[in-house]
């Protein structure tokens, strides 16, 4: 399945697990990939935080670099993830075997990062695939492995529909994507605002 190119900008209203807003900008790179720059501000469990990010994906939507900054009452943090495109990672310059085999970065703070595996895998209706990701927590930017699974299903209405699972959280839902492969509805987390 081929998606249309992403728009110049997109936005999500975060609700349910947290209250907040995310804005993202897509910039094509000279190598056929994209640079995705965004910011999420939120209130969650009575705490406020801001996460700024710049993520580079190659032409196959494999994450190659993610620079992430966060701010909260606990202070400011920064981390840099660099992927070799084959599942090897360095976090702040140090090899990170705990996320070996992951091709995507998934930011806890973001709805846009669920676009990466869908673009990369290009599943046909009825097909499923595992998509482990280097998962970056919003509050402290710790990085851990997040096992995920996507099953493309025939859905009612426009767009593409995927049954999504993150077993470590006991979480499953149906994600709805637009023609450019961006989430329109992420139950319990976000809805597309633009």
TrEMBL record:
<dbReference type="Pfam" id="PF06475">
    <property type="entry name" value="Glycolipid_bind"/>
</dbReference>
<protein>
    <recommendedName>
        <fullName>Glycolipid-binding domain-containing protein</fullName>
    </recommendedName>
</protein>
<dbReference type="InterPro" id="IPR009467">
    <property type="entry name" value="Glycolipid-bd_prot_put"/>
</dbReference>
């Amino acid at each position: 399945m081929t998606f249309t190119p992403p728009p110049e900008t997109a936005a999500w209203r975060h609700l349910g697990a947290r209250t907040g807003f995310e804005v993202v900008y897509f910039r094509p790179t000279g190598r056929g990939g994209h640079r995705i720059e965004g910011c999420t501000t939120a209130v969650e469990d009575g705490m406020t935080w801001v996460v700024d990010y710049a993520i580079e994906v190659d032409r196959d939507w494999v994450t190659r670099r993610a620079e992430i900054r966060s701010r909260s009452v606990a202070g400011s943090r920064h981390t840099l993830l660099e992927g070799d495109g084959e599942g090897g990672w360095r976090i702040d310059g140090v090899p990170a075997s705990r996320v070996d085999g992951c091709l995507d970065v998934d930011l806890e703070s973001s709805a846009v990062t669920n676009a990466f595996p869908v673009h990369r895998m290009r599943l046909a209706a009825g097909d499923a695939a595992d998509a482990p990701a280097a998962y970056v927590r919003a509050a402290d930017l710790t990085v851990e492995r997040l096992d995920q699974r996507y099953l493309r299903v025939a859905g009612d209405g426009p767009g593409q529909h995927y049954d999504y699972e993150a077993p470590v959280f006991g979480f499953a839902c149906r994600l709805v994507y637009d023609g450019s492969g961006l989430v329109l509805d992420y139950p319990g987390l976000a809805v597309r605002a633009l």
